[in-house]
Design goal:
Layout (H helix, E strand, L loop, with lengths): L17 E5 L3 H13 L4 E5 L5 H6 L6 E4 L8 H10 L7 E6 L4 H10 L3 E4 L7 H9 L10
Parallel strand pairs: 1-2, 1-3, 3-4, 4-5
Length: 146
């Protein structure tokens, strides 16, 4: 478990956060959405593929955090992140991996690619809201499963 300082940012109240979840598994998205709602997040959008994520994000009034699965149809999380980082409006948006690929190698690859954090599935329903709160407060979360 490693927590380091993320990008300099003003803390975001979960009630005001606009979060985009990029996840191709409906059950995983429902769990994430419920946990986010539990912590007060009212603005949560869902995209099932990395393809077109920038265009989709532009339809949202703002995007404070993107939770990105890595293994997606059409374009994976790494390809989607590259597009996000090239977009003038989204380049500084926090993008955190949420993946079932629980390995130190995958975490290092994600960090090197420019992600802002790493959370593994299956999600810990007790821990996940705390992890998201840390990210919204400007702390990075880089954690392998327990």
């Amino acid at each position: 478990m490693e927590n380091t300082q993320a990008k300099t940012q003003t803390p975001i109240d979960p009630k005001n956060a606009h979060i985009l979840v990029v996840e191709d598994n409906v059950s995983n998205f429902v769990l994430i959405a419920r946990l986010l709602a539990f912590m007060g997040v009212q603005k949560c959008e869902w995209k099932t593929t990395g393809w077109g994520v920038v265009d989709f994000a532009h339809t949202m009034p703002q995007v404070d955090l993107i939770l990105m699965d890595l293994h997606l149809p059409h374009e994976d999380g790494y390809e989607a992140l590259a597009q996000i980082r090239q977009d003038e409006k989204l380049k500084d948006t926090l993008v955190v991996v949420v993946t079932a690929h629980d390995s130190g190698d995958e975490m290092r690859k994600s960090r090197n690619a420019g992600f802002d954090g790493f959370i593994t599935k299956p999600l810990d329903a007790d821990r996940f809201p705390e992890q998201i709160a840390q990210v919204l407060n400007g702390e990075s979360v880089w954690e392998l499963g327990m």
